[in-house]
Amino acid sequence: MPGFELFGPEEKQEVADVMENGFTFRYNFDHMRNDRWKTREMEALLCEKMNVKHAHLLSSGTAALQTALAAAGIGAGDEVIVPPFTFVASVEAVIMAGAVPVFAEIDETLCLSPEGIEAAITPRTKAVNLVHMCGSMAKMDEIKAICDKHNLVLLEDACQAIGGSYKGQALGTIGHVGCYSFDSVKTITCGEGGAVITNNEAIYNHAHMFSDHGHDHVGSDRGAEGHPIMGLNFRISEMNSALGLAQLRKLDTIIDIQRKNKAFIKEAMATLPEVSFREIPDPDGDSAGFLSFMLPTEERAQVINKKLAENGVDGCFYWYVNNWHYLKNWQHIQELKSSAPLPINLIQDKPDYTQVSLPKSDAIMSRTISMLIKLSWTEEQICQRIENIKRAFA
After folding, report:
1. Contact in structure between 342 and 95 (CB atoms under 8 Å)
2. pTM of the full predicted structure?
3. What count of Cα atoms within 13 Å lies in the side-chain half-sphere of residue 53?
4. How many other C-beta atoms can be found within 10 angstroms of the C-beta atom of residue 115?
5. CA–CA–CA angle 325, 291, 114 (5° rounding)
6. Residue numbers of the chain with a pLDDT score lower than 50
7. How far apart are CA 80 and CA 94, in angstroms?
8. 186 is catalytic
9. Per-residue pLDDT tens digits for 179-234
């Protein structure tokens, strides 16, 4: 991770095909394309690789999340259980849908815990936005059972976890609807892009219509298409899909490299008595984009994070103080700051996000560091990195 480390002639050729046509719109205009449909081709390949019936590409992972919520019928006043450790888009999409994020505890999988979800359910809960953070999965059997028991939509935010699986099933395909991100620093990249995947035909139909102003995409004349629902413009371009198509063909190679590189470093760090590792419910399904480990105390985690940087170990994230990925640092979310009134502000008894207390999550995240696993490392560089890590702990 990320896929741009493996850019090569394959990506250039796919983009050149689009430039030769001079046409980047994903729909219609058949006579101008020379039968080149990069978005359709990437969607079909996604379905094949993930063993899922439907895939729909969009302009970003955030657009995918918002589209998935709308397509699954989640909107005004519905409560959606979300983790405090995620990229902020997982929460923003819920708010922009007019729904109410309800924060629940994580466990040492670094994902929502079954107990945390159960404790957060109310009569207004409509969905769980389950984020597979840092490339690995939550306790899927227990969480799916809870969602089934309470008739909740299970949305899998697998934006950081494409290529991961749980008991042989691709992450993103276990719930009712899943999302991927293909931004510039993801496991595979379209430059900017995302996808909604599902086995539910109704959700798929609503997704492809919602993301294109409600067009039903029936026939070849865009001006004659129907508009069964309202929507927005979250379309991906053929240029982005062309880049992503070449990257998706490399996904298996990327995951293999990540797993090999992570295994080397994890084996070396397992000899450090202070270190414990995140819980991975299905180790064989880890996409291995990160190596996440815990220290005994918050104070020790802060010291080690600093010493890793001092010893040249780059790509290490102490999320507890990171402004991107942890609730306690999201003042704009806590205070619902926006340039215009938000739908959630119309709800009389919305939660006071400045008062959210998640002691279990704080106790885990204050001790956790995640190390990015790169694709471009040589064996020599990995050996040097291991030596640098050991010096940081000395």
Report:
1. yes
2. 0.96
3. 11
4. 15
5. 60
6. none
7. 7
8. yes
9. 999 999 999 999 999 999 999 999 999 999 999 999 999 988 899 999 999 999 99
